Amino acid sequence: MPIYEKLMGNPFVDAGVCGICEWLGRNVQPEQITTDDLERVVNNVAVMMQTDAGWNNLYGIFPNGVLTNPSFNKCKTVKCKIPNRCMALNASYSKCNRVELFKNECKGYMDKISELQQAGDCMGCGRRNANTWLSRTNVPLTGGKNSNYFPVFSEGAGYCAACALAIQMSPLVYMGTAGKYLTLHSNSWKAMRSWTRVCVEDIRRQQLQKDITGCFNPDYKNPRNGMFYMARKMTQYQEMRTDENISIQVYCWTNYNQGPELEIFYMPATVFKFLRNVYQSGFNTAWQEIVRSGYLVNWAKVKSEEDYKNRTNRVYENLLQDISILGFFLNRRHRKPRGNWELLSLYLKEVRTMEPTQLEKIKQVGDLIAKCIEKSGRDRRLKQLEGAKSYSECRNILRYVIRDRIEQGAPEPLFSIDDYMEYLFPASDNLNLTPWRETRDLLLFRIYEQLHNWLQEQGYVDYDEDNTTDPDDTSQEED
Ligand SMILES: [Zn+2]
Fold first, then answer.
1. How far is the CA of 111 from the centre of ligand 1 (A)?
2. Distances (CA, A) of 146 to 70, 134, 168, 334
């Protein structure tokens, strides 16, 4: 029986197991890990993973641990606070050797590792019986002196030695964020591995350059934006098939002595799948434009990404809260689409589960309206459609377009009554939804896509296109 398996369910343990595997090699799987491997990883990592070496954010992960508690550093040999474990007693150290203490602690766990069973009461794997009682000194957010943080007021929790050891290696896989940590968990082992690769590569780089700074930290103080950064980095590896249903959870936490915290963010499989398609199908640039329009920021004052990357992003917020981001695909000020119909369809199909037939019908009607507007030589109908404030107003404008088309001698009707009922303005059970607005915005998107150049030539877009410093569209206020 192996020591570890994929996805045992506890985010800290799974993070640790992922980190151990990745440290051992790109293709190493949990089932292959032996105690010799574990010893190798511990010997490698322990030297780096200490505050003396520069891993300063360890204080928020394992406070009071051998690597962080100052009392382990103040040994004067004669009055040592930890005489039983003090290395100074049997070696020529002038103070406690924390690295050795940490290795000893890990060795203690290794000696107690038993075979994986069918079931057990370990909080990490549920596959072995707990033989180690750990507080938050060794497992984040697990009781300790603040026992009210943990159920039944217990001062810790029971883990098996294998899980206890995995957790000690988990900082390899945490993303630092403004004094807190982001820990990724997923229903997909491959997804977790691809994120682990990003973190471990950074730590190996630190090791090579002899400049240890600690957990991978791309400086995202806003955890939601950090989560989308994670998703983007994960999708750069192709091994995840785009038809897999991968959802991700991100735990944002600190384990500081003063006020441990925990916040959980969930990205549904539909959103993750959409993002994977975006990044793997060459929609990068268009998507970045849409994301940028979601920042509430004065672009005139922006000098670099640092100036906005931690601000609230409405595109991200909406995606996490299942609110439509359709409005962000429209650059109303410049009468221009952000992205193309293909990208918009991808979003609507994957995330909003819109039927392809409905999309196709709206596209056709959009094309016909665009032609009619172009033929009329004026942007009057477009202006009216943009300004429609109610369903009846929107319906009226479509009636005007139908009339215009008859006058222009169009051979076929704008749409049939069935199309109207089924696809353009289908009945909705949810009275809070305003499907007419969604349909109107889709029509506008298509018209902008077809007519943007013409509108510019005709002087109906009198804004400087390159001037992105204007406050952007007002789509949100309308909602
Ligand atoms: Zn366990």
1. 14
2. 20, 14, 21, 56
For helices 269-280 and 223-234, the axis angle rounded to 10 degrees is 50
CA of 176 to the centre of ligand 1 (A): 26
Residue pLDDT, tens place only, 168-179: 999 999 999 988
Report d(CA 293, CA 437) in Å as an integer.
Answer: 20
Q: What is the pLDDT of residues 287-330, one digit of tens each?
A: 999 999 999 899 999 999 999 999 999 999 999 999 999 999 99
Element (H, E) at 362: helix 356-376
Compute, in angstroms, the gap from residue 266 CA to the centroid of ligand 1.
25
DSSP summary character for residue 174? P
Q: CB atoms < 10 A from the CB of 206, how many?
A: 18
Give the C-alpha separation, 85 to 90, whole Å.
10
* CA dist 405 → 239, 399, 402, 410, 452 (Å): 51, 10, 5, 5, 21
Q: How confident is the model at residue 17 (pLDDT cuts 50, 70, 90)?
A: very high
Task: Please tell me the distance between residue 31's alpha carbon and the centre of ligand 1 in angstroms.
Answer: 14
> How far, in Å, is the centroid of ligand 1 from the Cα of 171?
18
The encoded tokens of residue 85 equal 């474990």
* Cβ(312)–Cβ(320) below 8 Å: no
Instruction: State the DSSP H helix or E strand holding residue 100, giving kind and residue range, or none if neither.
Output: helix 98-111
CB-CB contact of 292 with 473 (8 Å): no
Contact of 274 with 346, CB cutoff 8 Å: yes
C-alpha closest to that of 216 among 55, 16, 387 = 55
